[in-house]
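Cross-check.
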Amino acid sequence: MNYIEQLKELYEKNTKHSNYQILSKKLTEIISNDQIVVKTRHELERFNFVTDYIDFENKSVLDIGGNTGYFSFESLEKGANLVHHYEGNKEHSDFVKMAAKALEYEDKVIITNDYFKFKNEIEHNYDVTFLLNVLHHLGDDYGNKEISKDEAKKQMSEQLKSMASITNVLIFQMGYCWKGDREKNLFEKGIKEEVISFVKNASSGIFEIIEIGIPFQKDDVIIYDKMNSENIKRYDSLGEFLNRPLFILKST
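Predicted model, tokenized:
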């Protein structure tokens, strides 16, 4: 089996979070997105919004829960000089390792096949960190599975706070449901204002909110734009994921 077939096989391994990301642009020169089954979470649209505000040139990047590496590899394409990719799923980590070799990025990518330990001492401080849709998996994919929802939400807040000591910029997003269960809402009304209030309270005094990106649909195309009085509304027709605000935070 050649490495292209190995990459395809690793990508398509049937796991809880498989097929979540499109391939980075450079990787599509080796495997096209048409050759795999992918359920995009609008990675390109989110990354385009981030790069309107963040310059990745010569930056160090931490990608927590990096899945199959879209944001890691795109950061390198934008000039990052180092990416530390954390991913608890072995198949995804193996995919990123093989893709980094295929893209000749081996010397720029550190891969840790583990769940990020928020309370551990971090030896390296990063310029930019991606913490995308991870915290609402506390007590499910990682952490104490016996924890109560209220305690889990409290710990999510503490984990968000802890990032200020290790990164200059934090790109953050989280879901509304706990453990992927729509009957276990982290936010009572399931609206954007609740998530924004949660992030503002957790980040008060340690992070400045640079911008909040909100997805909306225009002519069947999804676009992330700055929060305004119209897109702050909840649109059930877009589904739960496209009602999640995207935060760009800067440590103070």
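The domain at 3-251 is CATH 3.40.50.150 (Rossmann fold). The helical segments are 3-11, 43-51, 70-77, 90-102, 149-162, 192-203. Passed to J.P. for a second look.
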